Amino acid sequence: MSDKILNVAVVGLGIGRSHIVEGYLPNTDKFRIAAICDLSQDRLDGIGAEFGIEQRLTDFDALLRMDDIDIIDVCTPPMVHYPQIMAALRAGKHVICEKPLVGSLAQARRGCRGRKDRQRQVDADFSVSLWRWHRAGSKNYQ
Ligand SMILES: NC(=O)c1ccc[n+]([C@@H]2O[C@H](COP(=O)([O-])OP(=O)(O)OC[C@H]3O[C@@H](n4cnc5c(N)ncnc54)[C@H](O)[C@@H]3O)[C@@H](O)[C@H]2O)c1
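Above: inputs. Below: predicted complex with nicotinamide-adenine-dinucleotide.
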């Protein structure tokens, strides 16, 4: 198993804060929170200061241009999931996304195709998914 620590960016800092607290901080041997992104500067500054996260972006596209991000954790409102998942895949990132994953079967199929074409992982954020990621460690996500 690779020892690589994966760099995560959390997008959307409502329930995204819980992902930080319950998902990533207890697993710092596998994940590093490299950036946070939200439209709200207040949320960015509050959570950035709380957890010592320096990279705070309001621009999702700028986040996608960061070469050192491995995984985008999408915690934005549901209507934003599909465009952000597809943009993240196009940028070569793995994606984990809050439920509901997308809005239709057609979007799910396009997401699956995008994932396969780019050899990246997309997962819906049910607790079983986080557990599976944790169990799989870095080996499937490089
Ligand atoms: N809160 C829960 O208990 C809960 C439970 C299950 C699923 N979810 C899912 O989690 C997602 C988020 O829910 P929430 O309760 O955290 O909502 P929220 O409104 O509290 O937070 C969403 C955040 O996303 C930010 N945002 C919106 N558009 C953005 C964009 N384009 N780029 C960057 N940031 C953007 C907003 O500024 C806001 O801070 C939803 O899909 C919801 O269905 C939430």
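Residues 105-118 form the longest helix (14 residues).
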